[in-house]
Design brief:
The chain is α+β, with helices and mostly antiparallel strands. The protein has helices spanning 42-54, 64-85, 133-139, 145-148, 188-191, 196-203, 208-221, 253-256, 262-271, 415-435, and strands at residues 4-12, 22-26, 30-37, 93-94, 96-101, 106-111, 115-120, 123-126, 156-157, 161-162, 171-175, 182-186, 228-236, 249-252, 342-345, 386-389, 394-396, 401-402. The strands form three sheets. Strands 2, 3, 4, 5, 6, 10, 11, 14 and 16 form a nine-stranded antiparallel beta sheet that branches. A six-stranded antiparallel beta sheet has the order 8-7-12-13-1-15.
């Protein structure tokens, strides 16, 4: 069985963010998505470095699972070197999900709370389990799924690719896929704001490019406050082995480029000898750079404002207008205004009409425990899938982290309450000291 991906990808800033910390790439044999985190543009750096490292995976290797784990360790060492060299990007990190086909099977590498879903025969399955505090608390019976959606620590990660080395490995999952299955890789800017039913309904859109559009517009309609990035890939098991590969596509920070100080760039070059990442052209010379063979740089380009090519799949376009908020709130702008939405794919995407606006609203339902849920009849565990390896460490999007060697940490104490009590006691002591 020759497994090949027919994929499309898209990203949007969301309704609040002014920069995109997500990165994604799609090709015939590998799909990669990273959701960066950290201050002072550190999130962009982390996601670009991680995605670039994973783009070098040899999908024809004899130990694909080991290669996925090794790529995670390599990316972590690079992030640690950058963080040590430049304090402005200290505490950088990223989630990472990848689906890699070696021709006969598909392996998923996963760390963090970005997700992989599979749509099969009108049923949607969640393949990955979030590495978050609330998910662990649900598993321990300390929270219900409904409580998890509004828990103050819903964004606190147990595992990520960050600047702590050594750290936890990725989980590796062996997927038993069939021709006609559809994969969804998404950042939490989608899954935190939409229910499984909403995700499944958009994912079931016949044309994958339109499915990407429908997912992004649904997240924006739910007023997602985070960057939102999605990859939709149809599984083809009857591709001609002699058929030439389609050109890879990349979206988000990895297409926009990043800023690195001289110190950080030098540390990155030392940590990853031979990778040669150009901050302004992150894909130049990479394993998924269409121009790598002749040494020319190939950068991401926005799709032209034209109708889809007759060669693309057919499907009804998603209705409605997407809104994009960079800061503040207000009314939606008219269609045709420039926006920060980008699309990419292994085929020509349909017209990406671009709009911008500002939207009032708070986050929608936040899900931390939707594994096994289905938007359509037939919920359950995807048959034939198995986790090959996993480990744990503590990592928070907000800042603190502490790696451990195996067991997951207990749920956190309420630090806000303790901090308030400590502050009150300190003020009382200060008053006694000053006023007798």
């Amino acid at each position: 069985m020759a497994v090949r991906f027919r994929a499309a990808a898209g990203t949007d800033l969301g309704t609040v963010r002014m920069n995109n910390e997500d990165s994604a790439v799609v090709s015939d044999h590998i799909l990669i998505l990273a959701d960066g985190m950290g201050g002072h543009a550190a999130g962009e750096v982390a996601s670009v470095v991680a995605v670039r490292v994973f783009s070098e995976l040899d999908h024809r290797g004899t130990d694909l699972a080991g290669d996925i784990l090794a790529a995670g360790r390599r990316a972590r060492r690079a992030l640690a070197a950058i963080s040590e060299a430049d304090p402005l990007v200290e505490s950088l990190g990223t989630t990472l999900i990848t689906a890699v086909s070696d021709g006969d099977r598909v392996l998923v590498g996963h760390i963090g709370d970005s997700r992989v879903y599979v749509l099969r025969d009108s049923a949607m399955y969640q393949v990955t389990t979030d590495h978050t505090h609330v998910q662990r608390m649900v598993e321990l019976g300390q929270l219900s799924p409904e409580q998890a959606r509004i828990h103050p620590y819903r964004a606190m990660l147990l595992k990520s690719l960050d600047d702590h080395s050594p750290g936890p490995d990725l989980d590796v999952i062996d997927l038993d896929l069939q021709r006609g299955d559809r994969l969804l890789l998404c950042s939490d800017g989608l899954s935190d704001y939409l229910t499984a039913e909403q995700i499944g309904a958009a994912l079931a859109t016949e044309d994958r490019h339109e499915a990407v559009r429908a997912l992004l517009e649904s997240a924006l309609a739910a007023a997602t406050r985070d960057n939102v990035t999605v990859i939709v890939a149809d599984v083809d098991t009857e591709a001609d082995a002699d058929e030439p590969p389609t050109e890879p596509a990349h979206v988000g920070a990895v297409a926009d480029g990043i800023q690195l100080s001289d110190e950080a760039a030098g540390a990155l070059a030392d940590a990853l000898p031979g990778l040669h990442l150009d901050p302004q052209r992150p894909w130049h010379g990479s394993g998924l750079d269409p121009g790598a063979a002749d040494g020319s740089a190939v950068l991401a380009e926005e799709p032209p404002d034209t109708a889809p090519s007759p060669a693309t799949d057919t499907g009804a376009p998603a209705s409605g207008t997407a809104d994009d908020e960079e800061h503040g709130s207000g009314g939606a702008a008219a269609a045709g205004t420039p926006s920060e939405r980008t699309f990419g794919g292994t085929e020509t995407p349909p017209t990406a009409d671009r709009t911008t606006g500002r939207r009032d609203g708070s986050p929608g339902d936040l899900s931390g425990a939707d594994r096994g849920s289905s938007a359509l009849p037939g919920a359950g565990t995807l048959p034939g899938s198995s986790t090959l390896r996993g480990s744990s460490a503590l990592r928070g999007r907000g800042g603190t982290s502490a790696d451990d060697g195996g067991a997951d940490p207990a749920p956190p104490v309420w630090p806000g309450v303790l901090a308030a009590a400590f502050t009150a006691a300190a003020l009382v002591l200060l008053g006694l000291f000053l006023f007798g």
